[in-house]
Amino acid sequence: VLEKELSSSKLYVKKFGGTSVGSIARIEHIADKVAKAFFEGERQVIVLSAMAGETNRLFALAGQVDPKAHARELDMLVSTGEQVSIALMAMALHKRGVKAKSLTGDQVQIHTNSQFGRASIESVDTDYLQALLSQGVIPVVAGFQGRDSNGEMTTLGRGGSDTTAVALAAALSADECQIFTDVTGVFTTDPNIEPGAQKLDAISFEVMYEMARLGAKVLHPDSVSYAERFKVPLRVLSSFEPGEGTLIQFAGCAPTKAKIVGIATSKSLALVSLQGLKEQDDACAQLFHQLAQLGVDIDLMTKTQHESQMLSFTLAESALEQVLSELDALSSRLDLGPVYVEQQLARISLVADGTLAMAEVAASVFDTLGKQGIHVKLLSTSEIKLSVVIAESDLHFGVRALHQALALDRV
Ligand code: ADP
Ligand code: ASP
Ligand code: MG
Predict the structure, then answer these.
(1) Which ligand is closest to the CA of 184, given by its number?
(2) pLDDT at 281
(3) What is the mean pLDDT of residues 123-132?
(4) Cα–Cα distances in Å, from 411 out to 259, 262, 357, 373, 408?
(5) Which one, 75, 85, 117, 402, has least CB within 10 Å?
(6) What is the rounded average pLDDT of the residues 28-47?
(7) 21 CB contacts (<8 Å, ≥6 apart)?
(8) How many angstroms does the Cα of residue 34 sit away from the middle of ligand 2?
(9) From ligand 3's centre to the CA of 194, what distance in Å?
(10) Which residue has a Cα nearest atom 4 of ligand 2?
């Protein structure tokens, strides 16, 4: 009878982020929540991040030894953070009389490809998890990590525990995947930048994916695309405050007039410009081929032609050194001409729920930022988004001005 009852009760995969398990007191608080649900008969799989600051600390340690450390060893190192959280959580649950077992990604058999530092989940074995659930044991799984086909430890990229949670929810056909964090849901923009940001009750997968990809770190972009692909009900909630949070859902019918739903931001960008590129040869192709091989993510890009060609692109500041040395190596061979670099830049992106009237939006962006004396260095648009690159020091002013101009504080 007990087993039947267990298997008919709802199944939730609940992920708690770094701040939510950032101290022993917070781990005890989460353990209280999980134990309460357990004694109410809910079936749960818990996914945890490393304690707040731990992953950064580990990366910094590696940096002290070798800034060019091998990606395999970095993954071995940074995946330890999650192991600390899951073991402590299992202990806290045992203390409350709850059956629980901490598990690494390897033990669960979360299979990924072999791209160290940015691996993708390919499949998840559910046998072990199902067996534990049917015995009334709560699996407490390390987020952010998996194993490749050679048995090597891999990690999913910063913020990747969200994706672990969604992948487990998909594999187990959970009733909902709940991402518990330090804000009460998904907002019109980062509430830590704009206090007037409004919480959204629901957001479409499409808009959420763009927001995440463009820097809204409340959800890892892969978690959103994975949830959409496998139709996982996905919700973002607060670990500390009650509430329904934000549901990520399939869009209803297309809006009659597209409107901007949110503003995403990204910092620590650099802009590289190459002037005087020769037109006749394939310098651009060779250049980007080389950057692709290095795994450098190139963002906004423009290529213009006046008397000679000018090529500009943005990238993460952290990749700049590597890219400049590559350009240096290519320079004489391809006759690249002078290279200009600007650093400490940021990007603000407006994301809409349908096709925007771009000229109108661009006009209002230039107008709003211009009034603040903020200079737009680069602008790019796609169907549902518009991004501008500005100085990082202007980021907060720019976001607040646009948030107000677009009346997002009144949604
Ligand atoms: P966790 O450690 O729980 O995974 P993260 O720091 O990764 O938490 O994500 C939560 C943070 O995301 C919030 O504290 C907030 O500053 C930031 N954030 C950025 N954009 C948004 C947004 N549109 N809505 C909510 N939070 C956002
Ligand atoms: N601990 C990892 C990070 O800080 C993964 C995560 O928190 O989701 O990026
Ligand atoms: Mg996160």
Answers:
(1) 1
(2) 64
(3) 97
(4) 11, 10, 20, 27, 5
(5) 117
(6) 97
(7) 27, 30, 48, 49, 50, 51, 52, 85, 88, 89
(8) 21
(9) 19
(10) 55
What distance in angstroms lies between residue 138's CA and the mean position of ligand 3's atoms?
22
Q: Quick check: 49 and 164 in contact, CB under 8 A?
A: no
Could you tell me which of 195, 183, 199, 186 has the C-alpha nearest to residue 239?
A: 183
SS3 399: helix
Given this model, what pLDDT does residue 2 score? 56
397 Rama class: left (phi>0) / alpha (psi -120 to 50) / beta: alpha
Average pLDDT over residues 113-141: 97
d(CA 379, CA 316): 17
Classify 402 as helix, strand or coil.
helix
Q: Which ligand is nearest to the CA of 47?
A: 2
Give the ligand 1 atom nearest the CA of 189: 23
CA 56 – ligand 3 centroid, Å: 13
Checking if the pLDDT of 127 tops 50, the result is: yes
For residue 165, how many C-alpha atoms fall within 13 Å in the half-sphere facing its CB? 32
Predicted TM-score (pTM) above 0.85: yes
Pocket, ligand 1, Cβ cutoff 6 A: 17-20, 49, 159, 181-183, 186-187, 189-192, 216-218, 262
Least confident of 26-40, 101-115, 296-310: 296-310
Q: Return d(Cα 350, Cα 386) in angstroms, integer.
A: 5
